[in-house]
Amino acid sequence: MDNPKVTVIIATYNRETLLMDTIGDLLRQEPFREGWAELLVIDQSVSHQDATIQQLEQLQTQGAIQWVRVQPPGLTKARNLGVSLSRGEYVIFVDDDVRIENENFIAAHISSLTRPHIAAVAGRILVPGESPRTVTRKIGHLGFFGTREPGFGSDWSGPTETLRGCNMSFRKQVLAAIGGFDERYTRSAFREDTDVSWRLKKEGFELWFSSEAWLTHLSSPEGGTRDHSITVDVDLIVNDIRFALLNLHGVRKWAWLTRIYGSRVVKAAMNRGKFSMRHKAFMNGMFEVAHEEPWHLVEERNS
């Protein structure tokens, strides 16, 4: 395809059948059948099962996908690479463990992105075996203390305060204008979607939630964007601190940090132990984030 209108990007890491199911669902969407969409698979896996490699190579040879292998793994870096390689006016991000049985999935994203002043869209997320996580107002609301954004399973469309990384889309020009995803959100990149939402809104752009752009997120415990060189608890603490120090000010910043220490250090230690490890992660995170450079300056120096 010479001039795709939309690019779908999957950043993947150590997924096999789940990845191929996600790819298969996307390629059955009308935009791919009609030739005005492209699919980029940004693969951070060191290796794959032989069957997965054969399928990916075949799809690449057929021109159905672009399969790009990169190391080392990092979700935000993989997302930015996908954007840099994309040719579409719109970019859609989905995780590598979703099922898309909704035949209007891509069309619903594009329809929302063409609304006046809308820069990015969060799609509805369903989880097998769970009731949809719904709210009657304020989808994606952060709360003063930074409780996790609710309501992405709601069955109505409207403005949202934040996006969710497993199902989100952007006008590519706008995403590029704010510098893409902040690559300081490393490893599982917790809060990277909150961060990009915050920066878009800071520049005056609006975000939209589309209940029509729904998918099912399997949330597989294996693979994905995980980096096992650091524990999940430490990762959540550091990236939660990173968002607060980079984006918040005054009383709200300190309220957010108080919540992190209370919930991710004290409460988590009461439930699962390892207080010293959690306290150390909090203190190290405060120091690390306070002294790190903007990621694009590091990238320019290393290029």
What features would you describe in this structure?
There is one protein chain. The chain is an alpha/beta fold and 303 residues long. It has 2 domains: 6-217, Spore Coat Polysaccharide Biosynthesis Protein SpsA, Chain A (Alpha-Beta Complex), CATH 3.90.550; 232-302, no CATH class. Helix content is 43%, strand content 17%. It contains 11 helices and 9 strands. The chain has helices at residues 17-27, 30-34, 50-62, 75-85, 105-113, 172-177, 192-202, 232-247, 250-272, 275-291, 295-302; strands spanning 6-12, 37-43, 66-69, 90-94, 98-99, 118-126, 158-159, 167-171, 206-217. Strands 1, 2, 3, 4, 5, 6, 7, 8 and 9 form a 9-stranded mixed sheet that branches. Helix 9 (250-272) packs antiparallel against helix 10. The model is unreliable at 226-230 (pLDDT under 50). GO terms for molecular function: glycosyltransferase activity. Keywords: Glycosyltransferase, Transferase.
Topology summary:
Blueprint: E1 6-12, H1 17-27, H2 30-34, E2 37-43, H3 50-62, E3 66-69, H4 75-85, E4 90-94, E5 98-99, H5 105-113, E6 118-126, E7 158-159, E8 167-171, H6 172-177, H7 192-202, E9 206-217, H8 232-247, H9 250-272, H10 275-291, H11 295-302
Parallel strand pairs: 1-2, 1-4, 2-3, 6-9
Antiparallel strand pairs: 4-8, 5-9, 6-8, 7-9
Helix pairs in contact: 8-9, 8-10, 9-10
Keywords: Glycosyltransferase, Transferase
GO molecular function: glycosyltransferase activity
Pfam family, one: Glycos_transf_2
